[in-house]
Specification:
By secondary structure, this protein is mainly alpha-helical. It is about 80% helix and about 0% strand. Helix 1 packs across helix 9, helix 4 packs antiparallel against helix 7 and helix 9 runs antiparallel to helix 10.
Length: about 230
């Protein structure tokens, strides 16, 4: 692994793999969260499974945390390297004419997404870790002493989206995610060598994913704010 990361191409390849992994996770995260709009009971069941199944908690969750940290660290490393390279070539090249706004500002969209992820983790993940592994409550129930009280996940989600400032923050966060994905999706596939005759179709899938998934998350936040 360290050998791969010693070269610029290797670092871009590893960066692309981490991006693809995170895009799969985002899709899975959206698939569960959208259930909260159409079926609160199914959302509760899915959330309880993901929050208590040992393979998710002790294998997938650490891998996900590593993937997030690796992706951001590698992104900053590649940005520093690119800036050093541009100091030589700027006199000959008009960057604005040769690249999109999204590609030139990946570091800024990524930086805001990082801040957003930290706030999101404090909002949901830290609370979950505290309830399950500090307080020792793995029941997932609103009232652990009452088996008929029902699961707490839907109730907690709805409460989170009551303050308008949090809804606004989530909307801005997912707009930045869309901007990041509009360049990052295609760039990731290009870095792993998938830039071939399917490029046009891949561009279409990229646009659908990059705009559709963030828009879906924004819809979920707005729905729960105005419906409750």
């Amino acid at each position: 692994m360290s050998g791969i990361l010693n070269s610029s191409i290797g670092r871009k390849f590893a960066m692309a793999l981490s991006a693809l992994f995170l895009m799969v996770f985002i899709l899975q995260h959206f698939a569960i969260n959208i259930l909260s709009v159409f079926s609160p009971d199914t959302f509760n069941e899915a959330s309880h499974f993901m929050g208590t199944f040992w393979a998710v908690q002790f294998i997938l969750q650490p891998v996900l945390i590593f993937g997030v940290i690796f992706h951001f660290v590698m992104g900053f490393v590649l940005e520093i390297q690119n800036n050093r390279a541009r100091q030589v070539s700027y006199a000959k090249s008009n960057g604005a004419a040769n690249s999109s706004w999204m590609s030139r500002n990946m570091i800024w969209s990524g930086g805001f997404i990082l801040v957003f992820i930290v706030i999101h983790m404090i909002d949901f993940w830290v609370h979950e870790m505290n309830v399950k592994y500090v307080a020792g409550d793995m029941s997932g129930l609103i009232n652990p002493a009452d088996p008929t009280s029902g699961f707490r996940y839907y109730e907690e989600l709805v409460v989170k989206f009551v303050p308008i400032w949090r809804v606004a923050l989530y909307c801005v966060g997912f707009i930045f995610l869309a901007l990041h994905l509009l360049h990052g999706f295609g760039s990731a596939f290009q870095s792993i060598g998938a830039n071939n005759k399917y490029t046009k179709a891949l561009k279409g899938v990229s646009n659908v994913y990059s705009i559709g998934i963030p828009a879906g998350f924004i819809f979920i936040a707005l729905y729960h704010h105005f419906a409750h």
